[in-house]
Amino acid sequence: MATLIVSYPATDGARFDRDYYVGTHIPIARAAWTAHGLESAEVLFPADASQPLAGMVLLRFTDQAALDAALASPGTAGVIGDVANFTDIVPAMFRAGD
Known about the structure:
The protein is an alpha+beta fold. The protein is 34% helix and 30% strand. The protein has helices at 18-33, 64-72, 75-82; strands at residues 2-9, 38-44, 53-61, 92-96. The protein has a four-stranded antiparallel sheet. A hairpin with an 8-residue loop joins strand 2 and strand 3 (53-61). The longest helix has 16 residues, at 18-33.
């Protein structure tokens, strides 16, 4: 299994629409990447305002090849292009191995 972790660093005055993220953005990612091996998406939000992140998602793929295929797929442009609809935070991405 391979995991893509996308996090959104909390910054003063930043916009992050949790409802849009969960209700619209994550389904866009699922639609784009399930055919390429996306198995699950776990969204996490901070317990309180003192945390360093506004939110994050753990995207689990069957393996690194599936993760690579998903990111190289045409649907990725739609996933990335949708970010501006829920936040003005530049996301950080971390790839965890098998």
